[in-house]
Amino acid sequence: MNVVNVVPMSHSMPYPPADEPHVSVMAREVVRLLQPSGGVFLDVTLGAAGHSVALLEAGAASVIGLDRDPRALELARARLEPFGERALTRHSSFSKFGEVLELLGIDKVDGILADLGVSSMQLNEAHRGMSFRAEGPLDMRMDTTRGETAIELITRLDDDELTETIGRLGEERRARRVARCIRQELEAGKLATTLDLRRAVVRAVGPARINGVDPATKTFQALRMAVNRELFELEALLNLAAERIRPGGRFAVLSFHSLEDRMVKRAMQNPVWEPLSRKPLVAEEDELAENPRARSAKLRVARRAEGVP
Ligand SMILES: C[S@@+](CC[C@H](N)C(=O)[O-])C[C@H]1O[C@@H](n2cnc3c(N)ncnc32)[C@H](O)[C@@H]1O
Q1: What pLDDT band is residue 210 in, cutting at 50, 70 and 90?
Q2: How many Å lie between the centroid of ligand 1 and the Cα of residue 206?
């Protein structure tokens, strides 16, 4: 299989090369609002451990980091080594973070951070199949040790389900056409790689970039979210967080998708939470200039109310 860049020069969102680690988004704001000094924090999306390192450097007593991606954990472990026993890492989906705390004998933590979505490393590694910029298998799983791949999902879903997935998770208006073209390519035996999938989408919606965005972006996002059950994971995290953060502790969620931000906003309207701002925070100009990935980031932070069960 060739590794080919589809649109290397003109894409509006340049990605660092595959061996360059993920750059943490809104780390300053996360540290300021989580107030890590002396506390025990749970980073449920460890990634390259950038936020965890920032929390530890800002005085967190310890950080427990989870990731469902074994490769991310390997990298994170290396970066966290200098912190010794102050940093613990576990392979887990965040919907199951309660079980991890149980095993560690921890009832409540001082704060939880979730930085949703995928890392640049995952997007940049062609063999993960998450990006249409390079040829890779239609996998898209964050946790490569289990679960259904994108091609298995596409094969299993019927036309209506595929349309619904692409329409809802990708907010793609032409979802039915896209689903039909994908199905045709599959049935013709021509859907094996990310570039095949991109070609099917382009056949459905045309090659034009809208606001500099590749026409396959929405479909890839939708399928990745479905493969990784990202909304289900978020719902579970939101349901569990209040139980596991001590009164006065803090919960920070960085989201990159309007559906996710809406879910976080709604969850933080529960009286167990006191949101620290009415509107989500967004990245400052200086960060946007350095890290285009921060463009769509929305940060919501809430304090666990005292005296509310
Ligand atoms: C945006 S990156 C996090 C980057 C990290 N905050 C940093 O500063 O380097 C998201 C990470 O969360 C992981 N992830 C996403 N959903 C997850 C879930 N439901 N459970 C556990 N890890 C998840 C991904 O595998 C990825 O490594």
Answers
A1: confident
A2: 32
Q: What is the CATH number of the domain that holds 152?
A: 1.10.150.170
Question: Is the CB–ligand 1 distance for residue 22 below 6 Å?
Answer: yes
Residue 123 CA to residue 132 CA, distance in Å, equals: 9
Let me know whether 217 and 297 are in one domain. no
In a domain, 137, yes or no: no
Beta strands in the chain, from DSSP E residues, in sequence order: 40-43, 62-67, 87-91, 109-115, 245-255, 273-275, 298-304
Find out whether 74 and 119 touch, Cβ atoms under 8 Å.
no
Task: Give the pLDDT mean for 31-59.
Answer: 97
* 220 contacts: CB under 8 Å, gap ≥ 6: 130, 131, 132, 170, 194, 197, 198
Q: Going by C-beta distance under 8 Å and a sequence separation of 6 or more, which residues neighbour residue 103?
A: none
pLDDT class of 15 with cuts at 50, 70, 90: very low
Q: Which domain holds residue 220?
A: 146-227
Give pLDDT tens digits for 283-297: 999 999 999 889 999
C-alpha separations of 302 from 44, 60, 95, 243 in Å: 16, 18, 19, 14
- Residue 302 Cα to ligand 1 middle (Å): 20
Nearest atom in ligand 1 to the alpha carbon of residue 27 is: 8
Our count of domains for the chain comes to 2
Distance CA(114)–CA(30), nearest Å, equals 10
Summarised one tens digit per residue, pLDDT across range 215-247 is 999 999 999 999 999 999 999 999 999 999 999
Ligand 1, atom nearest to 53 Cα: 8
> What is residue 19's predicted lDDT score, i.e. its pLDDT?
54
| Ligand 1 nearest-atom number relative to CA 52 | 8
| 3-state SS assignment for residue 134 | coil
Question: Looking at residues 148-171, what average pLDDT do you find?
Answer: 98
Give me the mean pLDDT over the 201-228 stretch: 95
